[in-house]
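Sharing a chain and its predicted structure for anyone who wants a worked example. Both blocks are below, sequence first, tokens second.
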Amino acid sequence: MTPEEALRIYWGFSSFRPLQREIVESVLCGRDTLALLPTGGGKSLCYQVPAVCSEGVTLVISPLIALMNDQVAALQKKGIRAAAITSQLSKREWLSVLDNWRESDVKLLYLSPEKLQNSLLQEKLGQLKISFIAVDEAHCISQWGHDFRPAYRQIDNLREVLPPDTAVLALTATATPEVIDDIATSLRFRPGHQVFKKSFHRPNLSYNIRIVENKIDRLIQALRAVPGSAIVFMRHRLKTAQVAQFLRAHGIMADYYHAGLTAEERMEKQNDWMQGKTRVIAATNAFGMGIDKPEVRLVVHLDPVPSLEEYFQEAGRAGRDEKLAYAVSFISPADIARLTDPSNNPFPSPDEIAEVYQKLFEFLRIPLGQGEWEKFPFSIQKFAEYTKLPKLKCYEILRWLERDGHISFDDQCLRHSRLHFYFDFYDLSARHSPESAVVQVVQNVLRMYEGVRYTLVEIDEARIAKMAEVDEPQVKKILYHLSRTGDADYYPKNTEGFLTLLKPRLDRKIFKIDPEEYSFRKARHQARLESVKKFYQSTNQCRVIQLLHYLGEKKTEPCGLCDFCRDQRRMQKNPSPHSLQLRKASEKEIITRQADGQILFKKT
């Protein structure tokens, strides 16, 4: 079918958005393509439509497990066959997906970049008919980007196992000029590749920075002043629940969302917000990726962002319907002071990273040279207690190890335990006496859950223990053992997540942090924080001009909507003694805008 037919049949749209059709055509013509579309610009359609229109399967490389699962579910609802190979699948399961792709008619296959490092997986991909490769969040490929992941640097290895004319489509919502060049080079774009870039300017979006002492009161004021759907972003999970509770106490229908919730809880909360049952969602940055709700009128940040790229992406979730919308940041003076203070923004040292690396394998009881592709239920709280380090510090270092390709960490918890048996029962009974607890547990599982031999099923260990006449801890111990011996896949409930080891354990003397790369990352981290601090403190330039300049786009005309432009217009209209005083304020004073019609200034 043609792209227009696919768009109408599966998505119900009569026409493409600007640049979408050109990007789709470039991909269908077999050209390597880079697409830069701002948040809400419809990036996913740029690879989903040509995937439907092409023979074979499209590989989609994506860094976020939750986003992959959400997109697979959405495509399947539309009648488009899709699958995802993530750390949530065992080796048997992802091999089954690859071996049966033709029979199941899978059109889009989602993969994490870490999975691509598996040589067996690469060999299997070489046997598939690949239409093209789509690299989502392509800025992750660049060390100049705000979310660099070294595993993205290995994507170009697919060039060696796939036909040389396989096209690559790279997509991102934010990229500086350095990142754009790095993407094309790292993916080995062929001569004649095309770059499609839509202006990052959102003329309907008003950016506002307010330096305030009481954020929550100001949040209430903003929500009452701007009707409609809203997102409130913050950095810590616990704070999301507290803010949602506070808003409900003030008569505002609100809920909270973060990656630590179960998949069912996250889906329920997301659906309630999408359908308008919940007006405000208080969330970490785990919320919003891949969610297309056009009528969001307000996005609020209650904490400083780690980079302007992330700010631009999150703020851009407002006003996708191209009607007036607001992005407001409530930042305290203390927040600004902490932004670039090394004592408040600890960057893990090489020794700390190496120490946590060794502690991790000790915690999991993995000997030297072992552990590659083993998967474990993982509690970061228990691990932090084991290392005697703050939980946040452990989390940061685990993410560092993930970016370096040593582990894959999925912090999604489960509401129900899940189990899949692979063995022949008669073979198992030959290894154990009929009276053993192992045989008793397995027999009862097979009686209670017939499907356990064919797929993952939800189980209740307490019921199994009662039927097998053993205690519940023993049931879990047996199922863990079967999982470790390869006889089963067992995912217990109420874990904080799962951790997959991507490489065997290295000796302390061998495990090294490259000093040049470490220094580069640390300097980039600090430079991004300095850019954020400068953006928050700026009082002499339009917000849009600042953001676009940072992203490599020149704009000289003020937007007319941001806090700076409105304040300038107000002062020109009413040149009161107070406003004249502000104009003459010394360079040692920071102008702090607190509300429309109120401009205060403080001594630094």
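Comments welcome. The domain at 3-197 is CATH 3.40.50.300 (Rossmann fold).
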